[in-house]
Design brief:
The structure holds two protein chains of two kinds. Chain A is mostly beta strands. Chain A has strands spanning 3-7, 10-12, 18-25, 34-39, 46-51, 58-60, 68-73, 78-83, 92-99, 108-111, 115-119. Chain A has no helices and eleven strands. In chain A, β4 (34-39) and β5 (46-51) form a beta hairpin. The radius of gyration of chain A is 13 Å and the shape is globular. The chains are: A mainly beta, B mainly beta.
Chain lengths: 121, 107
């Protein structure tokens, strides 16, 4: 059974940093692209970032480019999101999502339960 | 960026009713359109990929279709367990974008 477990969320002041992790199990992690998708409280879904299975391609939403960095450690079956210069508008539930293929475009066939990031002074 | 205009934003229907949700893409996305179901307090779940393909284990009352840049999601007979918010998502290019969501309630 595929499992994705996010961690690292919490309350942080504007301008500070946070690192999210996503621990994957139940599938061959290094065969699949991975994404981060976020959802502000009571609102819709917003795509944040992507990384291919071999880390050869990464991508970011305009709203986070230059502040967030996605990475993965295939030896540890883990996905990461380093978030710097956090803003109030980054407050959201952050999901890691497994892509159906090794690339970076497609559909998300598994999602974690999310980790909540709250940016507030 | 490709905009996905989803409608309605909410609807109320009776058990057994046919429910239809639409997503219109701002440009051609071929059939690169997926539908997800999100129940309260839960993560989204894939229902339909590539406009009309049902994911494994998804009940056959769910279906999807495409006409040009217009995509339709249908529940052929609404069940109480279908109460959720439904989102479309395009993957023709980056950034991936989602529709605003449709909250489905029981009348």
């Amino acid at each position: 059974e595929v499992q994705l477990v996010e961690s690292g969320g919490g309350l942080v002041q504007p301008g500070r940093s946070l690192r999210l992790s996503c621990a994957a199990s139940g599938f061959t992690f290094d065969d699949y692209g991975m994404h981060w998708v976020r959802q502000p409280p009571g609102k819709g879904l917003e795509w944040v970032s992507l990384i291919t299975s071999d880390s050869g391609t990464v991508g970011y939403a305009d709203s986070v480019r230059g502040r967030f960095t996605i990475s993965r450690d295939n030896a540890k079956n883990s996905l990461y999101l380093q978030m710097n210069s956090l803003r109030v508008e980054d407050t959201a539930l952050y999901y890691c999502a497994k892509l159906h293929s090794s690339g970076y475009l497609g559909y998300f066939d598994s999602w974690g339960q999310g980790t909540l990031v709250t940016v507030s002074s | 960026d490709i905009q996905m205009t989803q409608s309605p934003s909410s609807l109320s229907a009776s058990v057994g009713d046919r429910v239809t949700i639409t997503c219109q893409a701002s440009q051609d996305i071929i059939n690169y359109l997926n539908w997800y179901q999100q129940k309260p307090g839960k993560a989204p779940k894939l229902l339909i990929y590539d406009a009309s393909n049902l994911d494994t284990g998804v009940p056959s009352r769910f279906s999807g279709s495409r006409s040009g840049t217009d995509f339709t999601f249908t529940i052929s007979g609404l069940q109480p367990e279908d109460i959720a918010t439904y989102f479309c998502q395009q993957y023709n290019n980056v950034p991936l974008t989602f529709g605003g969501g449709t909250k489905v309630e029981i009348k």
